[in-house]
Amino acid sequence: MQTCQHVLFERSEMKDRHLVRKKIREHIADKAKLPILIFPEGTCINNTSVMMFKKGSFEVGGTIHPVAIKYDPRFGDAFWNSAKYSMLTYVFNVMTSWAIVCNVWYLPPMVKEEEEDAVHFANRVKAVIAARGGMSVLPWDGGLKRKKVKESFKEEQQKKYCQIV
For a Cys-Cys bond, which of 9, 19, 118, 127 suits 58, CB 3.0-4.6 Å? Predict the structure, then answer.
């Protein structure tokens, strides 16, 4: 990973977040360096939707070159449902699949507009990717598939529902 100039960090550490932001800004300022590949969802899901993007990737400036990636499950499913299959079962399924077919679309570069904050820019990029891949846009974080929903989030949604009713 050191030869490819990876930037590793612990998401829960605020100091790491600031250091990563600084390293990414330095990297994109150096035109001699290769572009950085970032997966802003932070996780993979079931190939039907695009989940909330982490805003940090969109705060550092620079040009975003969006890529839509969607697996074709006809010959083998690359998605690992960790709640349903063990890692060993998943690896066996992938290795014995006839083929793993992946459609990749390179979309036009995008730049943050002057009046746009990082969240709105991330949502705009996410919508373009989802539209090209024929996927739906989801407003929540992919981490929800591994963690329990916070009580405060549940209460907020319940209040909104009560106001509607």
Answer: 118
Q: What is the pLDDT of residues 6-39, one digit of tens each?
A: 777 776 777 777 888 888 888 888 888 888 888 8
Asked if residue 20 belongs to a domain, the reply is no
Given a contact cutoff of 8 angstroms between Cβ atoms, the answer to whether 118 and 55 are in contact is yes
Q: What is the CA radius of gyration of the chain?
A: 18
- Residue 25 counted as domain residue: no
> Cα separations (Å) of 84 from 42, 69, 128, 131, 142?
20, 23, 31, 29, 17
The answer to whether 133 and 72 have CB atoms below 8 angstroms apart is no
pLDDT digits 0-9 by tens, 51-72: 888 888 888 888 899 999 998 8
Residue 58 falls within a domain, yes or no? yes
Contacts of 23 (CB under 8 A, 6+ apart): 7
